[in-house]
Amino acid sequence: MHSVTIPDEFDNARFDRALAALLPEISRSRLKSLIEGGTVTLDGKVADTASGKVRSGQVVSLVIPEALPAQPSAQNIPLDIVFEDKDLIVLNKPAGLVVHPAAGHADGTLVNALLHHCGDSLSGIGGVKRPGIVHRLDKETSGLMLVAKNDHAHNALSAQLSDRTMSRTYHAVVWGVPQPHKGRVEAAIDRHTRDRLRMAVLMGGREAATNYKVLEKFGDTASLVECKLETGRTHQIRVHMQHIRHYVLGDPLYGFQKTAAASALRKTGLKEADTQVVERFPRQALHAVELEFVHPTSGKLRSFKAKLPKDISNLVKILRKI
Predict the structure, then answer these.
(1) Half-sphere exposure of 312 toward its Cβ, with a 13 Å CA cutoff?
(2) Kind and range of the H or E element at 288?
(3) pLDDT in tens, 256-287
(4) Which of 83, 151, 236, 293 sits between 20 and 30 A of 162, alpha carbons compared?
(5) 81-134 pLDDT, tens per residue?
(6) What are the pLDDT digits (tens) for 284-320?
(7) Which CATH number covers residue 132?
(8) Is there a contact between 308 and 287 (Cβ–Cβ < 8 Å)?
(9) What angle do CA 109, 115, 119 make, to 5 degrees?
(10) Quick one: 9 and 111 in the same domain?
(11) pLDDT for residue 30 is more than 80
(12) Are residues 134 and 261 in the same domain?
């Protein structure tokens, strides 16, 4: 049971807005569903209209039901946990692991693994006992991800993602060497007009910006590039690298054509075995290497790093032979 008295500054304010400000640990959408579900009272009477007005001095009481069991099943899938406390988890996702259950991936996902790992430590997101995925990584992108265990953490971390105060840094191996070596790609992104599996740079799309910096050159053939996201559009780095014609190596959707890649590699002097490793790299060479955010409870700035996984690290070693 939560009880709160409406202060003077919220006199005549909309009910759900006043509650959202007074109870920041509960999301506004969750509060709205509680109001409409009849579990919130105003001076002892059920108040089931979120848009109604409140007066200073009124007492609001609400009962938050037990979180419902999550629909996906809990599965014992190993996780590389970098940090965990009562509010959140920072983990290092391997390539090949799907984040959410969906068509074609009903189980065996990160969410299934988190449900098993967290057990009863989840207080629920939006009334359901589930982990709150703050930001996603594509199936074949590896690296750091942030997961909330409760509504308060999910709200606060999602807000940092939205207002761009959360810092996310990736390392990518790309074809060629971007010029200049440090720059910013600002190009709106939206769903591809013909292929619904792809995104594209499109006029009228959603604002998207990526800051990049060349960390290491491998002749003129390829380079290791740092990418910092200002926004977080679907496939953003992959699309922006395609847009400036420095495709992420191994990318099946936005990558360099295989014939062009093979031709470029033949000129490098690499041994055939090394050439085959580069040419047949099985996924986009993209890794979320650093994550920085303000902890939702302590208010302290937290920073985490994850070194390149073995497959990308081995790829870099081979390219250094050029």
Answers:
(1) 29
(2) strand 286-294
(3) 877 787 788 888 989 999 999 999 999 999 99
(4) 83
(5) 999 999 999 999 999 999 987 756 778 999 999 999 998 888 666 666 778 899
(6) 999 999 999 999 999 999 999 999 999 999 999 999 9
(7) 3.30.2350.10
(8) yes
(9) 160
(10) no
(11) no
(12) no
Query: Do 131 and 14 have their domain in common?
Result: no
Max mean pLDDT range (23-27, 30-34, 133-137, 195-199): 133-137
Q: Are 314 and 197 contained in the same domain?
A: yes
Query: 220 catalytic, yes or no?
Result: no
Poorest-confidence range of 127-131, 152-156, 214-218?
127-131
Same domain? For 174 and 250 the reply is yes
How far, CA to CA in Å, does 270 sit from each of 82, 84, 273, 319? 36, 43, 8, 8
Residue-wise pLDDT for 191-205, tens only, equals 998 887 899 999 999
Give the predicted TM-score (pTM) of the model: 0.78
Under 8 Å between Cβ of 190 and 63: no
- At 28, which amino acid appears? R
pLDDT at 208 exceeding the cut of 90: yes
Q: Are residues 315 and 183 in the same domain?
A: yes
Range of the structural domain that residue 31 is part of? 2-62
Which residue matches tokens 């909330």?
A: 148
* Catalytic hit among 16, 138, 151, 251: 138
What is the number of H-type helices and E-type strands within the chain? 8, 16
- Count other Cβ atoms within 10 Å, centred on residue 243: 17
Look at residues 137, 147, 26 and name the one whose alpha carbon lies nearest to residue 84.
147
Asked if 220 and 246 touch (Cβ cutoff 8 Å), the reply is no
What is the number of domains present in the chain?
3
Torsion 18-19-20-21 (CA) sign: positive
Contact 172, 285 (CB under 8 A): yes
- The amino acid at 301: L
